[in-house]
Description:
- The complex is a heterodimer of chains A (about 550) and B (about 425).
- Chain A is an alpha+beta fold and about 550 residues long.
- Chain A has three domains: about 170 residues, FAD/NAD(P)-binding domain, CATH 3.50.50; about 150 residues, D-Amino Acid Oxidase, subunit A, domain 2 (D-Amino Acid Oxidase, Chain A, domain 2, 2-Layer Sandwich); about 150 residues, no CATH class.
- Chain A has 18 helices and 22 strands.
- Chain B folds into two domains: about 260 residues, FAD/NAD(P)-binding domain (3-Layer(bba) Sandwich); about 110 residues, Rossmann fold (3-Layer(aba) Sandwich).
- In chain B, a hairpin with a 7-residue loop joins strand 15 and strand 16.
- In chain B, the strands form six sheets. In chain B, strands 1, 2, 13, 14, 15, 16, 21 and 22 form an eight-stranded mixed beta sheet that branches. In chain B, strands 10-9-11-12 form a four-stranded parallel beta sheet, with helices on both faces.
- Chains A and B meet through helix 12, helix 15, helix 16 and helix 17 of A and helix 5 and strand 17 of B.
Amino acid sequence: MENNYDIIIIGGGATGAGVARDCSLRGIKALLLERSDISTGATGRNHGLLHSGARYAVTDPESAEECIRENMILRKIAAHCVEETDGLFISLPEDDLQYQATFVEACRKAGIRTEILDPEEAKRIEPSVNPTLTGAVRVPDGAVDPFQLTAANIIDAKAHGAEVRTYTKVIELIREQDRIVGVRTYDRRAHCEQTFYAQVVVNAGGIWGQGIAAKAGITVNMLPAKGALLIFGHRINNLVLNRCRKPTDADILVPGDTISLIGTTSSKIPYDQIDNMVITPEEVDILLREGEKLSPQLAYTRILRAYAGVRPLVASDDDPSGRKVSRGIVLLDHAQRDGMEGFITITGGKLMTYRLMAEWTTDLICKKLGLNVPCRTAELPLPGSTESKKEVERKIRHKPTTQRRSVISRHGDMADRIADQDSIKNSLVCECEEVSIGEVEYAMENLSVNNLVDLRRRTRIGMGTCQGELCACRAAGLMGKKDPICAKRAKADLASFLNERWKGMAPIAWGDTLRESEYTTWVYESVCGLTDETEKTTVQ
Amino acid sequence: MRFDTVIIGGGLAGMACGIRLAEAGKRCAIVSQGQSALHFSSGSFELLSRLPDGTTVGDPIAGIAELEKIAPDHPYATIGAARCERYAQEVPDLLRAAGIPVYGDCHRNHFRITPMGKTKAAWLTIDGYLTAEEAGCLPFNKVCIVNVEGFLDFYPEFIAEEFRKHGITCQFATINFPDLEQIRKNPSEMRSANIARVFDHEKNLEALAAKIRDVATGCDAVILPAIIGLTRDDSFEVLKSKVNVPLYLLPTLPPSIPGIKAQQALQRRFRLLGGEYFLGDSVLSAQCDTEYVQSVYTANHGDEPFEADQFVLATGSFFSKGLVASPDRIIEPVFDADTVYTPSRADWYTLHFFDKQNYQAFGYATDAHLRLKKGGEVLTNLYGAGAGLAGFYPVQEGCGAGVSLLTALYVADQILNRQ
């Protein structure tokens, strides 16, 4: 029957994408619904840290063990999304060096490899580190690209029969007696309502999960915690830098490709503010002040943008005050918890444990569907990671040298799907991130790109030093070219991209950032005469 | 080195001031970093398009008279409406004498067409660029918009989408030649200046003309991106003579060919008048008494001072580093002169890109003669001109070029009238 699935997943973050992949690999017909684009929630708004688990070793051993296991799995199955950098936990004169022993012992218990370095050795392998450090411990931290990771899960899920609908908002959970049997949605581009049915509906909405559960009359108490981060214009550190003390604000500096990231702050916000992330001057100041303690270079490195995500922390079911936070992964079978069949909520957890969360969820789905199929996501590599970088290099030898590395880092073994037969396809749209016309066209045709911000998530276009100063316009031109009727939409889209970009730049708009912003204003508003057309057309 | 006047900054304001002073027989030096706002010019100059409240201005001079009443801190208000009109009348001749052919009337805005097909008010436009006397009133019914294959800084589809609103039929054509294929070999080279160099070759210009003749069949006009005539002045005229249909240029994204050409023309004119132009140099520091600038020092000339009776600061705003923003204040880096700004960073801007942003009106603190101040005291021989001045919103008010040109002429007059 049309519009009929085994399961419906609500939420296109890493968890939802992971569930879609796991289900599809186990032969379960899945539909994933996302109100915006994939990776738009907390998935795309964190450090991109491949946790070794060391950060949690002392305070939360269970999370630490989960992290190190998943860390090792992701290195295998998502090699193209992972950079194996290792990390340092450094002690500064103001820190208690005694803590180091406690830390190392806790890591050992959790199964996390550690190596104690003397300060000179630490400075040698990580020249950017604060030179006043008194001690350092090396752990298997790394960097992971959450956009690529989620995209690879989506690509594989689709390849195994899943259906993915972005810009589709769930407006109602359809209920028959004590059972959820489907959802009613609103397609934000076609502007129409639709109905989909399934035996099980999975709520993987992250922080938005509270609102989704509420549609079934079910209470899931989220405690939204905003975390702000800053992205720096070039890569400062080779290894992840952490403080060797109890986790606190702004104590992780993560390198990622050509940039570095400092984060995060942590502040409780009211639930009605989760869609309104404003970064305050105070948060920027904290991040810089604390970040400089990890690496003094931050003081004179250009900041590209500021952004914030909301951690989906869940109040413990056993605490009536709703203040006690559940640690780790929270999988709620609402049949057991609330007497509502056909409805599951998966939340809590971390980007690091998205695969494990998907496995638990799919196991529960299998139980409900009466299936007995084992999970294979810990062994099967994701698309992009099925061949080694060397093999991919060989396949795309004919591409301009400068583009090879960036294309492989973005698409792994799928790099050879990008057209490059002539110089036009190889012409660069974005110079900072080496994105060619061929790559933009590939993304538009194959990776469900609906607008410039989606395109940025798939190709990194506009993520470099210039933050999309001219490439946004070029990409808008290419999108408008696909279909003459799209020209109006492409212009509105460009205006909305500039607004989105400015939100990240305004909190740090001094120095070169203000210079670039002034230039952008001149080029787009004055030379091009672009006006704010976003409100009239919004998402189409 | 000793001069009558040293001008710091070689953009539109610095050049216009230098030319005016040199015309009056003054011995002038201009110290210029190189690129200025002219490198992203639209091919038109704006005098005043809107009042601070957003009201559209049809007659810029009447608008300036209004500004005098409602925006006393605006540089136009400092100069005064009567003098603004006099300078505005003089500007076209100054530009034409430099070899920049412009047309326009300071009492009546016309309209230019942007690289996205939008219509914007303009005061003066360089010959060859498409304009309209009334918004939406274009000189053709059916037009062919031509672009170079793979050139991403020009938007035929966007332009057509706007034109169609006015009932104009649009068709597209793309051009590709072997010489363009050469520059395409480097994936980042398909930019306006490189393409323009290709068309400065006679054989490519001829091939372009042939292509235009071919695609123009049945059209009233042909539109080209501004990629014609970088190293020679006659390319566009030659091209027009070889086709039998009206040709119009539209600006592209930077670098701007008309802007680069204008910059070169002004430089030539200044040198021809005996001015000394120090290109690729920048002023690093200054020697000042309490009220008086003695000399300035530059990067290329080390401890050899540039001495002068008068100094003009025309270093532009943030983009050209004439103003520098730190997290908590706005600095004028050469003289550490006083600046006008709001102290809390949260007040510098809103979170909406297209809003009028307060930081755009930050700039040097000046007196009625546009002399700068330091520690609250007027520096009696240091004048400010151009985008670094405070009190105006160049983009929202559509007055950037006008403020640069008019304040430059006003400052030149202040200097000439001192003796």
